[in-house]
Amino acid sequence: MGKRVQADITANPTAVALDEATVAFRLADQRVYTAVEKVRLAVEDGEFVAIVGPTGCGKSTLLNVAAGLLKPASGSVRIFNAPLAGLNGEAGYLFQADALFPWKTAIDNVAIGLEIRGTSRAGALERAQDWLTTVGLSAFGNRYPHMLSGGQRKRVGLAQVLIRDPKILLMDEPFGPLDAQTRQIMGNLLLELWNADRKAVLFVTHDLEEAIALADRVVIMSAGPGARIIGDWRVRLPRPRDISEVRLDHEFHALHREIWGVLKDQVMKGYAQSAG
Amino acid sequence: MSKIALLSLQLLVAVVALALWQLFATVPVFGRLLLPPFFFSNPIDVGSQVVDWFSSGVIWKHLLITLWESILAFAIGSLGGVLVGFWFARQPLVAAVLDPYVKMANALPRVVLAPIFTLWLGLGIWSKVALGVTLVFFIVFFNVYQGVKEVSATVLANGRMLGMSERQLMRHVYWPSALSWMFSSLHTSVGFAVVGAVVGEYLGSAAGLGYLIQQAEGVFDVAGVFAGMFVLSAFVILIDLAVTRVERRLLVWRPEAVESRG
User: Fold this and answer.
1) Cis-peptide, bond into residue A240, ω within 30° of zero
2) Which chain B residues touch A if contact means CB-CB below 8 Å?
3) Is A69 close to B161, i.e. CB distance below 8 A?
4) Are residues A81 and A74 in contact, defined by beta-carbon separation less than 8 angstroms?
5) How buried is residue B238: exposed, middle or buried, by Cβ count under 10 Å (0-12/13-18/19+)?
6) Whether residue A274 has pLDDT greater than 80
7) Which of A63, B23, B166, B229 has its C-alpha lying 20 to 30 A from B235's C-alpha?
8) Contact between chains at B157 and A99 (C-beta distance less than 8 A)
9) ipTM of the assembly?
10) Helix B58-90 to helix B92-107 angle, to the nearest 10 degrees?
């Protein structure tokens, strides 16, 4: 506990701080592939940061490092000023792929996060029902994941993560597989939930428009291997935002043009590599 | 096609087959019977034998014995398969060391074990149960092993990020995944439990459906052999229906009732 108190004293503690983090994988043929190299990234408490980069640049790798699912080969990871050892207990992780437990109903999927912590089943179910209502699925509690649409599954996933009230939210292209309209609706839902208590968010996406519309800061990564952070923009669009309206804002366009100018080269490089 | 139309077509197949059998077994074609009664009996004799068994009540004892043996073989084999499957999947070293022996044991035709089991366990039900267990065990074992090993990496990572301990992962992730694989092979393993019981009885026993068939065969009572076969088939179909019901209850969370008979 000592460490926690100390961390809280700091005026605005950095939620996630990666310092010179390098992640390397050993390939099947024993060569070493460096996914990300010497990345320095800080997410302040209450800040919404989006990471954008070409496909295969190691955005998800970075997220897994922050989650503690991957250990960097070198460099340090600090969570609220404490060095990260093992899994990041302060973080909730929303995965790109389906991560719900297929053998549990929607409400059980949401309640499980509390149950494993020792909350009574009745209490956990009650809270889970509240969360299902919050994400607009109050009537779908007893459905199994395969009976829900892709968007509904993401809503359940969001409730599953948020019911534990994590201090940090890690999101790996969570709305990637959804259609355009559902993505906008989900984006607005996310912003609405985030606005309520402003957690630190690290949001990975390949969609620059989505990143600008959602985030306070947009971070651009170069194409891999050895991807680095090559740009960092502050988004000064007013909040609360509506995703579909903010896209019409001319400041949005100016920022988009500016960032795209940098991102474009990397995207082309990324494509050339994956094609070759 | 409507359910009733399908059912009547299915019945029609049985009626036509039985009628042809009766016809060729009783009416000479060009001076001789195509299906001599000594080898083929005829549906009416077989039917009356079945009716006789049920009206006198002899059959119930044999049916109950076979059912009991099947249930025991299924229960013990499944339990063993689940435990060993889990153990192997969680201890890769154990799995690697014992792998060739498991393959050897599984390659062995189980019928050759029957005399050994009779020698060890006597002519009672346990030698039949043991034979059934050797069949059921491997099916359940392989499925559970696969089920534990093939848990989706994302679902597992999600469990970890939600704060699950190893024990909680076992209960909420590995266990349901393994069970779903086991249930998807339920038809096969239940079928093999019955096969073990009947083959065991056939090779040496004092009761059961296999015993009835073997006795009839011993006195060249072809009608008795066919009657035993029909009762056995009906028995298996009823068990299969029950399994389908159970399966539907247990696997509601699955996209579609995946059925593996392999």
Assistant:
1) yes
2) 152, 154-155, 157-165, 168, 172-173, 176-177, 180, 252-255
3) yes
4) no
5) exposed
6) no
7) B23
8) yes
9) 0.87
10) 150
Instruction: For residue B24, give the amino acid letter.
Output: F
Domains of chain A: 2-90+166-275 (3.40.50.300), 92-165 (no CATH)
SS3 A234: strand
Mean pLDDT of chain A: 89
Determine contact, residues A182/A151, Cβ cutoff 8 Å.
Answer: yes
Q: Are B22 and B42 in contact (CB under 8 A)?
A: yes
More confident position, A106 or B36: A106
Contacts of B207 (CB under 8 A, 6+ apart): B61, B62, B65, B201
Q: Identify the CA nearest to A100 among candidates A145, A139, A138.
A: A145
- Count Cβ atoms within 10 A of the Cβ of residue B24 and give its class: 0-12 exposed, 13-18 middle, 19 or more buried: middle
- In this structure, are residues A87 and B161 in contact, taking their beta carbons and an 8 Å threshold? yes
- A212 phi/psi in degrees, rounded to 5: -65, -40
Query: B24: Cβ–Cβ under 8 A, 6 or more apart, which residues?
Result: B33, B34, B35
Binary contact (A113, B162; C-beta < 8 A)? yes
Predicted TM-score (pTM) of the model is 0.80
Phi then psi dihedrals of residue A183, to 5 deg: -60, -45
Instruction: Check B154 against A102: CB less than 8 A apart.
Output: no
pLDDT for residue A158 is more than 60: yes
Please indicate whether, in this complex, the C-beta atoms of B157 and A146 are within 8 angstroms of each other: no
The single-letter code of the amino acid at B15 is V
- Cβ(A211)–Cβ(A205) under 8 Å? yes
Distance CA A52, CA A222 (A): 9
Q: What are the strands, taking DSSP E only, across chain A?
A: 14-26, 32-44, 48-52, 74-79, 82-83, 91-94, 168-172, 200-205, 217-221, 229-234
Does residue B260 have a pLDDT over 60?
no
- A&B contacts, CB < 8 Å: 65
pLDDT digits (tens, 9 = 90+) for A123-146: 999 999 999 999 999 999 999 999
- With a CB cutoff of 8 Å and minimum separation 6, the contacts of B20 are none
Question: Cα dist. B26→A190, A227, B37, B86 in Å?
Answer: 80, 86, 8, 58
End-to-end CA distance of chain B: 29
> Could you give all domains of chain B from N- to C-terminal order, each with its CATH number?
1-38 (no CATH), 41-250 (1.10.3720.10)
Rounded Cα distance between B78 and B183, Å, is 10
The closest of B215, B250, B262 to B58, measured between CA atoms, is B215
